[in-house]
Amino acid sequence: MARFTAESTSEEVCKDLSSEIKGSKVLMTGVTPGSLGGTAAIQISKFEPALLVLAGRNMRTLQELDEKIKSETPSAPTRLLLLDLSSQESVRRAAEEVNAYPETLDIIINSAGVMASPYTLTKEGLELQFGTNHIGHFLFTNLVLEGFLQQGAPSIRVANVSSLGHKRGPVRFDDPGFQGGKCYDKWQAYGQSKTANMLYSVSLAEKLGDKGVQSFSLYPGRILTGIVKHLSMEDFLKAGWKHADGSVNNSPNLGWKTPTEGAAKLIVSAYDPTISDKNGSYMVNNEVNNSEAAEYALDPQNAERLWSLSEDLVGQKFFS
What we know:
Layout: H1 10-16, H2 18-21, E1 25-29, H3 36-45, E2 51-56, H4 59-72, E3 78-82, H5 88-99, E4 107-110, H6 128-150, E5 156-161, H7 186-208, E6 213-219, H8 233-239, H9 259-271, E7 282-284, E8 287-288, H10 300-314
Parallel strand pairs: 1-2, 1-4, 2-3, 4-5, 5-6, 6-7
Antiparallel strand pairs: 7-8
Helix pairs in contact: 1-9, 3-4, 3-9, 5-6, 6-7, 7-10
């Protein structure tokens, strides 16, 4: 019998994994109130982590979540970090701050992201979804890992939040920017970025597994959070998520999850010790399930090709 189920809540998995959470030092991106990351952070804070770093681009929003956490767990050891994943300058500044911490981290949960956004560019001129969801996390995580490994950190686990949406498209290695927007499809661009999250975990496992780094990608389930607030009714109808009257399509075939069930997927991927021998794998419903991944999203050659492309786009090589 599986340790956790698709319906396990963040409260339930935290209780089960309390001994792993206690004393851990974890950094989370994507922790706005009401988000999966925010929900996971609130629950983790209740089980005595040694450090909980809340990373995001808006200090007011971070403070709002921090106040929520402290209202329930006054002793929670939180630390706030300004991090705009769409700006490599901001990413480098944030990584430098983290690497100056007196302690190293045990867990990094990369949960931040944008979804099916109109064609937009990052500050460096990259398509926004690829630049934020993948490149921003790639640069930040690698800079932090580089610093921690130099400091002799014994082990670090990285959980990268992907999506079933990775099946909407592979990485367009020769044209990740969709011809400068001329042939842009927001759903294919989202799929590309989520495929990249999975390939990044494959690469971390391959390149740094023997140095104590573990990485898993995960699908948290289909959930209506703030990440879809910009989508039109037409978008929801095309995706089959809503009916014409605006009501949610509750068909079980869509695999809807509540925010706490989705947050559980992040926590299990970050803390469950029983999956350690499956480094680089894809998690679905709180279990390793690589058969649910598109073949191109776990392919080692694609992972290496993406790593090289990503290094070119940030102008820096890592762990070579």
